[in-house]
Amino acid sequence: MVQYLSPEWLTAVRAQVDKASDLEKEFKGVNTSLKNVVKNAPGGTRVVVFRWTDGHLTDALLGGESDVGQEKTEFTMSGEYPLFVRLNKGELDIKTAIMRRELRLDGNMLKALRLNRAFDVFTSVVRQVPAEY
């Protein structure tokens, strides 16, 4: 088990993504990027950036607001650490969190709706990484 939002967690996420054949189908031909801004995490705000090129996860970055937080992405999701823990544990889904205004999503909403299924599958793959919170 790895600490959530640690470098070891990100390495495990990359390995899990590389094994997930259903992701390839969902992200086929997709070029996009997503930044998760996790506020009030242990040690301060943590930022995770994922980039997909032609359907493949090409970048996964982890850091703080002053480094990775400066990365430009197509979508940004931001919320408090306990919310991201619930999302990662599968206790809450992204759509519900956005509708309840617990999670903020910035970016092209029409494209986000088109990519909804792909992001749901990606989230389910990330959840497979055993993490400590």
List the topology elements.
Layout: E1 2-3, H1 7-19, H2 21-26, E2 32-39, E3 46-53, E4 56-63, E5 75-80, H3 81-89, H4 94-99, E6 104-106, H5 109-114, H6 116-127, E7 131-132
Parallel strand pairs: 1-7, 2-5
Antiparallel strand pairs: 2-3, 3-4, 5-6
Tell me about this structure.
With 133 residues, this protein is an alpha/beta fold. It has helices at 7-19, 21-26, 81-89, 94-99, 109-114, 116-127, and strands at residues 2-3, 32-39, 46-53, 56-63, 75-80, 104-106, 131-132. It has one domain (2-132): SCP2 sterol-binding domain (Nonspecific Lipid-transfer Protein, Chain A, 2-Layer Sandwich), CATH 3.30.1050.10. The protein has 6 helices and 7 strands; from the N terminus they run βααββββααβααβ. A 5-stranded mixed sheet has the order 4-3-2-5-6. A two-stranded parallel sheet has the order 1-7.
Instruction: Measure the end-to-end span.
Output: 10 Å
Find the structural class using helix and strand composition: alpha/beta
CATH architecture term: 2-Layer Sandwich
Envelope shape: globular
Helix content range: 25-40%
Order of helices and strands: EHHEEEEHHEHHE
Overall radius of gyration: 14 Å
Arithmetic mean pLDDT: 95
Fill in the CATH topology. Answer: Nonspecific Lipid-transfer Protein, Chain A
| Number of domains as seen in the coordinates | 1
Low-confidence stretches: none
Task: Briefly summarize what is shown.
This protein has 133 residues and is α/β, with parallel strands linked by helices. Helices cover 39% and strands 28% of the residues. The longest helix has 13 residues.
